[in-house]
Sequence to fold (251 residues):
Amino acid sequence: MTLNPVFATALSTVAVSVITALGFSSQAQGLTFLGNSSGIWGEPNPGSNTDRVFSGVGTSTFIWGRPRPDDFVNNYGTPANRLTFAGNSFSTDDAGLLFKVGDLEYFNGKVEQNTNVVSVPLNLSLSFTNPSNLNEVFNFDFGLDNTTNSGDKPEEDADTVYVKENFGTRSFKLDGNEYLLNVIGFSQDNGKTSVSKFRVLEGEKTTAGLYARITRVTPPEKIPEPASLVGLSLLGIYLIYHKKSLSAKNK
Fold:
């Protein structure tokens, strides 16, 4: 049996197209995550402070330190230190797209020595509405560097909120696949740049976005698309007839 030249050419073109398409269409599409975030503060670490003062555990606003008077008439200069976390809705994917999980507002108050704490954990909750109803809680530590307010310049009395070493990565599972949530740090330019800490002058407040990314650990499955499966069938027909054509010519 001789293969019709026109049909052979068409099948040959299909074969090349299918092989090319398989290099791309078999790649699994990235998973899109939609949801909302929220956060509450946990029990702080007082460090060596012997007279620590704090409140707000279990809420979105954490307050610490006893306000220090500006003079001897007990005229308090500022409120105590304060951290407030505000969650937001988010949309991201599992390919490492950076997204904001919330805003952190930090007020730096003048407080008495030994009434501070050195760190406080944030219980960050992500409620996914897509691809399924999934709630995950991640615990991250924020370090608090409170100065003694004895500097000659305002910058020397600035306090710092920073990302602790164990801030890094947390994992979760969805539909049998493992994903990593990596908190990158703080940003004030919509995630274009990020830092692991930010400083606030005495008596002032600053707000920065807290950014993270989700990446998939489990390799995605490569599943040919229906059009590719049809192409594979045509490719098989082409190879069969091509083999018969060669056999006929050799006789």
